[in-house]
Write a structure and sequence with these properties.
The complex is a heterodimer.
Chain A: H1 16-35, H2 38-63, H3 71-87, H4 93-115, H5 120-140, H6 142-145, E1 151-152, H7 163-186, H8 188-198, H9 200-205, H10 210-236, E2 238-239, H11 241-244, H12 246-259, H13 266-284, H14 288-302, H15 307-319
Chain B: H1 3-30, H2 37-55, H3 58-80, H4 88-110, E1 126-129, E2 132-135, H5 136-158, H6 160-177, H7 182-207, H8 214-229, H9 234-254, H10 259-273
Antiparallel strand pairs in B: 1-2
Helix pairs in contact in B: 1-5, 1-7, 1-8, 1-9, 2-3, 2-4, 2-7, 2-8, 3-7, 5-6, 6-7, 8-9, 9-10
Classes of the chains: A mainly alpha, B mainly alpha.
Chain lengths: 320, 283
Amino acid sequence: MTQPVSKTSVLAGMTSRALVITGLVVIVAACLPMVLSSYQVGLATEVLIFGVLAMSIDILAGFAGRTSLGHGAIFGVSTYVVVYATGQAGLSPWAGFALGVLAATAVASIFALLAVRTSGVYFLLLTLALGMIVWGVCLRWTQVTGGENGMRADVRPAALMSHSAFYWAVLAGAVIVSFAMWRFVRSPFGLTLRGIRDSESRMRSLGYNVPLHLFIGFTVSGIFAGIAGGLYAMFNNFVSPSTVALAQSVEGVLMMIAGGVGTLFGAFVGAAAIIVLENIVSSYTERWLMVLGITFVLIMIFAPEGIIGKLRAITSRKVR
Amino acid sequence: MSLFQLLNGLTFAALLFVVASGFTLIFGLLRIVNLAHGALYLFGGYIGYSVAVKTGSFVVGGIGAMAAIAAIGFVLDQGLLRFVRGNELRQVLLTLGVAFFLNDLALVIWGGDSFTVPIPEMLRGGTRVFGTFYPIYRLFVLGMGIFVFIGLWVLLNHTRLGALIRAGVDDAEMVEASGVNIRRVFLFTFLFGSALAGLGGLMGGAFLSLYPSADAEILTFSLAVVIIGGRGSLVGVGVGSLLVGLLNTLGQVMFPELAYFVIFGPMAVLLAFRPLGLFGRAT
């Protein structure tokens, strides 16, 4: 790499400046429960969980050039399995969580098998259709999923019952998972994915197995979406078809885009923006989906590079 | 599968054909994947229902639904999509935003109850088809599907406009270079494709009924049809609709709760061999 070696610290190639900033952000995030109300701590927890989901989508969209509209379904499968395993099957929350992530990974690998041969709009359509099928099954398979009414179960472990304790646990989880994703996209494997994003034919002629790389990339991204889904099960203690619905995938993609495609950590900014917006809107009107749709249209027209990218573009224009 | 179920599959396929042919026309010519197509179907159904109930005429309802949806299509194309032309991903995501907006708007206007479009007197009741008693209205839907197929086939293969559309599917720039205003052809196709979704909404609303998640269901089926049939091919939509319609009915008879899986299987097998669908061509 072209980065000067001297700037690189011991921690896996992170520059010391980036390390300091990351440390500060995590410390501030860890202090939040001391200043926020318990309701706001709940929102912050949600931001972290959906940030992880948006990051998992960004692995594919930002680094492999394939935007998935099926990740909400992968996320939701994990939620369903965790709730089912702890509620109906009587497993411990941790075993349920592991099963949920496993199930999400399995679903992601099936999606991946079908989707790796496509790109561009076809990839989008296929992942959308696959996600809809998961939604259809969750809605109709009443005996197992509880149909439209969903399922309720006390998933959250007793030790994490308080809002702050659960927030800290999720924060720790999010930090670990973010670090893992960051390592993943910077690994030689991640660089190969970027190569595929920029020119599939070049990578193929260099001898890389493009479908295999995409398959692994998709499955790994599914693991992270599954982790987010499992955390969401513990957060909500409830699951219904709306957890796997298209709106879930769309919100994830919107958060990813709002944060900036390919920025990875921008996902948390995007998640915070969308969740705060959702809460402000919901306190005035029940028409959140309408506002979500309008937001989507406006971002697509005016700020496809994301909120941060847009702000950066505006400020640099003013400076000039 | 009994004759009754076979007919159910065929009539559902006919409805899918009407909806998905509009979808694939737009996809094929304008390269726009209009994910608001399902929402246009639902809106068309609701508007058709309201007009039909007010005027007491099914035909007026149909005309009203088609005109209203074509108008929404006009706003969508000229008011929003023009800002993101040439960027496929942004177009798709934009139409998705519009789909959410329209779906929620429908919930505001018509509420969450399910409606059934009133069937005209002459199409009520049933008749015997090869010894099986079958509703006349569903046979009418089958007839409409065939009628739309023939109409589209004649339009595409035997008119100047159809020739322009076909040429545009193959190479829009070349058509424009030869002095044709391709923008106008694009716009016509967009409005026409949208109107077909509106017509489908009215037709489907009379036997599948209209409810808030109907748009997502019909969109999934349309996507499956287009993924199987291939982009921009009329025959592809026909074959895709038949496959999806029959498989869906088969699935509902054999595994009622997992019917969605049954359209998933063939789609998977097909994609492994032909990523662009049965009749799709690489561009």
